[in-house]
Amino acid sequence: MKKITSIILLLLATTTLFGQAKKPTIMVVPSDQYCISRGYTLVFDNMGSKVTLPDYKKALQSDLDLKLVISKMSGIMADRGFPLKDLEQELKNLESQSAELAMMTSKTSGAGIAESPIDALKRTAKADIIMDLSFEVKRQGPLRYITFVLNGLDAYTSKNIASASGAGKPSSAVQTEILLEEAVLSYMDEFNGRLMAFFEDAFAKGREVKIRIQMFQGMDFDLESEYNGKELSEAIEDWMAANTVQGRFSLQDATENFMQFEQVRIPMVNDKGRAIDTRTWLRDLQKHLKDAPYNIESKLYMRGLGEAWLILGEK
Amino acid sequence: MKIKLLLLATTLTMGITLQAQSKKEIKAYYGSQYNVEIMTLGVGNDGTKLFKVYGYGKSVDEATFEAKRNAISAAIFKGIPAGGGAAPTPPLTTDPNAEVTHKDFFDEFFKPGGKFLQYVNLSNDGTAGGSDRVKMKKGYKVGVVVSINHTALRKYLEDSGVIRRLDSGF
Fold this sequence. Notes:
The complex is a heterodimer. By secondary structure, chain A is α+β, with helices and mostly antiparallel strands. Chain A is built from 9 helices and 13 strands. Chain A has helices spanning 2-18, 32-37, 56-62, 64-79, 87-103, 117-122, 176-205, 232-243, 278-290; strands at residues 26-30, 41-46, 49-54, 129-140, 143-154, 160-167, 207-215, 226-227, 230-231, 250-254, 259-266, 298-304, 307-312. The longest helix of chain A is centred in the middle third of the chain and has 30 residues, at 176-205. Chain A is globular, with a radius of gyration of 24 Å. Chain A starts with a helix and ends with a strand. By secondary structure, chain B is an alpha+beta fold. Chain B contains 5 helices and 5 strands; from the N terminus they run H-E-E-H-H-H-E-E-E-H.
């Protein structure tokens, strides 16, 4: 009887843990190649050199094929429990948000909204996983077929976590819209299969994130300063080894001023069963460094679900 | 001379035994649910997939029934290969021992007249002929074109707790 109760409790605990991990947001974004090859571009002069950037707004407003493909993909993903963030809607929201922020004042003193240049810079359309999409209707004599490339990119590690690509069956009888729909249906199962493997890997080995340690200018210490006979960078590495899943992380690069950690595996939930992201996880290091013998103040900067920076020296 | 003859006879006997054993193995090999003969023909709307699949049986009907079961079995355990302009579809289960872990469920699901029949439709039921119907020593090998409702099958398995949802854990 005790055994049965233990098993039930264990199962419940597992379900609770799994039920609380932070869900990544996913957005379909037309690839740079797709936008630039069709002339959906923004060109500006960057100190004498011409820079061409994709104009997503223009692409979404004028390309019906693109909208059809995104709509079909959104339907499939919503059905799988991952409603996609809509890029067009996100761009509209950001525009109206900027206008509202600029106009808003307090009732009593008339003060405007506090906004640093970083805050303004952060107001961009973003998601944790980008579905980078390219497709093209090609011809082979009288036949038409679709080439389709879909890459799932982790926005923080820049890793390609899922992909599906190929060419469809040539046809002369079917409309292009049907061919596009068929292409989405053909490739989404393969894509989702890989996405599933990525999520299973994250639950087994932890979420893969990126951490950066930086120094504010003019501090009287750096990452080579010694505390109890150990350099600060070494103490940070020790903390990382103790707090990552199975001690998995790699120090990509380091000087006395910065440390760049990649492939850092953080748990999906903490000891209390609460879902955590990189910022929540790194806050423990912030607290650790605030204690003796370090007594270091630091600023915790979030770059999204999967990346955070800790800037040492001041808040 | 006698010894030579004896050696020759022994070698021949061994050869026959080995051959018989390998034939047995081949039979078992084709009976495995992991080795379904399947050829993708295309994808359809609303999560349907069209492919040609083969079944073996003492009669044509029996072979056709086995082909239907093989179609669903492939979708769940093996995955559907690429073809007909469609990308490969991974197996619905990511657990390599799913058939053992959920043995009771699958025994019930795949029994004659079981629920698996809800998710498979024949496009040429009862008309397998020509090269799609091969008379063998002890029965028939039949190839049929089937369409399976892959999305509905996945949802049923997810709801039954046999496979994980893509968003499970979040």
